[in-house]
TrEMBL record:
This is Helix-turn-helix domain-containing protein. It holds the Pfam family HTH_23. It comes from Halotia branconii CENA392. It comes from the Bacteria. InterPro entries: Homeodomain-like_sf.
C-alpha cells in the first residue's frame, strides 16, 4: 500500500491581483471590520511563510478556515475577504 503525501505548500497568489504581501498588511490595518482585518492579516502571515496551522493556532481559527480564506482570495481576489453580515437578527447596538 502506497500513501502519497502532498508537499505542495499553501500559497497566496497576490501577484495575480497586482498586489503585494505588504499591500495585504496595509489592507489589514485599514479594514473597517475586525473580521476583514483578521483575514487580510492571516494571508499576510501565510505570505511570510507561516502555515495555516500556525495562523489558525494564533488566531483561534480552524486551519481549514484559514485555508479557505486563501483559496477564496486566490480565486476571487480581495472581495472574498471583506466581511459581509450574512443574516440573523440585526445587532441591538452598533
Amino acid at each position: 500500500m502506497v500513501i502519497e503525501v502532498s508537499t505542495r505548500m499553501l500559497s497566496v497568489d497576490w501577484s495575480r491581483w497586482g498586489e503585494s504581501a505588504e499591500a495585504l498588511r496595509e489592507k489589514a490595518l485599514k479594514a473597517e471590520h475586525p473580521r476583514s482585518r483578521e483575514r487580510f492579516m492571516a494571508l499576510y502571515e501565510i505570505s511570510g511563510g507561516k502555515s495555516a496551522t500556525q495562523v489558525g493556532r494564533e488566531t483561534g481559527r480552524n486551519p481549514q478556515t484559514v485555508m479557505e480564506w486563501v483559496h477564496r482570495y486566490n480565486a476571487v481576489g480581495q472581495e472574498a475577504l471583506v466581511y459581509q453580515r450574512s443574516g440573523g437578527h440585526p445587532p441591538l447596538y452598533l
